[in-house]
Amino acid sequence: MRLASITRDGRAVPAVVAEHGVAAVEDFAPGLPADTMELLDNKLWPEVVASAEQATAEIFTPAETATFTAPYLRPHKIWGIGLNYADHAADLSESAPDQPASFIKGDHTIIGPDEPIVIPRQSNRTTVEAELGIVIGRYCRNVSEEEALDHVWGVTTILDQTAEDILRMNPRFLTRAKNFPTFFCFGPELVPMADVRAKFRSLDEIEVTTVVNTDERRSNVVANMTHRPGSLVSFHSQMMPLFPGDIISTGTPGAIVVADGDVAQAIVPGIGTLTTTVKREA
């Protein structure tokens, strides 16, 4: 069972996604918080699952009839990881760094599935980058790499955007190049670690693919990351506390330049597919 947000009467509400459909949490557990990020709490999620499993079948509707939005809009922070695959580093004539090349994105960048990515008027070369997202599930500070994944709630699919021409002017312009509105698309589902471990022997097996218009694609597997998920969680927890709902976007196998009218996807088999369109700012 997975966690998501769907729109209902003009508002976003938490929902669970099961093999037999989608159900709003308020329909089977009205006493639980009406905020998806709050349900990442380790004590609340088992209650959500137990209530959903006891819910009647008519509460669930086909997934294709639901309108998914970003799972939540106000994480404490979003960490992005640059150049985490050697192949992508080569695209930018860079080498993969010995320590994570991380940066922070503001929550104003967040959009959900089918909300358009907007190429800003300041950029003539904007890229989309599919990434595996790590969602923190409990307070995390100074944890070892071995215990890091115990603090992870689950994973999700991400499209992270870069105004690459701005970045190429000067590598110190990374924050500027990464923080235009609509430059962080995630969802539609959050997949709990229990489900991930049931599908994969290791996170290393997960494949991430950037796709534009079905014909341009760049793929790689987590095993080829320079800094893998457990290492990233541990590294950033040494720097500052991580809170439930914080996201670490683990880096892309390859960026693809987009133009007005393109369709962009992040495809992670066994985890999900995130799809949206691209438009140029008027």
TrEMBL record:
Database matches in SUPFAM superfamilies: FAH
InterPro entries: FAH (IPR051121), Fumarylacetoacetase-like_C (IPR011234), Fumarylacetoacetase_C_sf (IPR036663)
Highest taxon of the lineage: Bacteria
Stretches assigned to the Fumarylacetoacetase-like C-terminal domain: 77-278
Coiled-coil regions, chain positions: none
Claim: rRNA-binding is one of the keywords in the record: no
Keyword entries, A-Z: Hydrolase, Metal-binding
One of the record's GO molecular function terms: hydrolase activity
PANTHER family recorded: FUMARYLACETOACETATE HYDROLASE DOMAIN-CONTAINING PROTEIN 2A, FUMARYLACETOACETATE HYDROLASE DOMAIN-CONTAINING PROTEIN 2A-RELATED
Family per record: Belongs to the FAH family.
Protein's recorded name: Fumarylacetoacetate hydrolase family protein
Organism: Amycolatopsis pigmentata
